[in-house]
Amino acid sequence: MAWAPDYITLAQLKSPRLDMDPMDTSEDAELATHVTAASRAVDDWCHRQFGKVDTSEARYYEGVWDVRLCTYVHEIDDLYSATGLAVVNSTGAAVTGSTLWPRNALLKGMVHTQLRCSAPCITVTSSFWGWSAVPAPAVEATLIQASRLAKRKASPFGVAGSPSQGSELRLLARLDPDVVTTLGRQWRREVWAR
Hints:
Blueprint: H1 10-17, H2 28-46, E1 57-62, E2 64-66, E3 71-79, E4 86-89, E5 99-101, E6 112-117, E7 121-126, H3 136-151, E8 159-160, E9 169-170, H4 177-183
């Protein structure tokens, strides 16, 4: 898996979601666009992506002093393992006593999003940025949104149904409400001005 991948496959979208023959490839290019667009819509809503890096990367962070904790708190990119984690300060010296938070994130199927330590500016090197696997709610949300995008061609002016039969429905120009419900607050990362 790469950084910011598509969260579903064409096969998952075509059958049973769209009730299409998996062997029919006539619309695959268009459906692939819907899959990618829906995956990025999930990223945008969640303020994070659910892929992972394939090699070790160094990332730089500035912390905020927390008076209550008496330590610097660094909002870091999603991290799914502490294995081989290297933390150094601005002079290149190893930082000892750093703690990843939330502490029990991995046990709950989540990731670490904070690192607490004594240094105000740090470089964190890891091969485990991102998520080890795409969580089920992100997959389901992508399926819902991609299905909606695929069906959109049947309502080119944003209106579905029939006004004469009283079943007219205006399509919303925002993320599908079921996607928002599926992802909830648990999968959405709060974004603060940095």
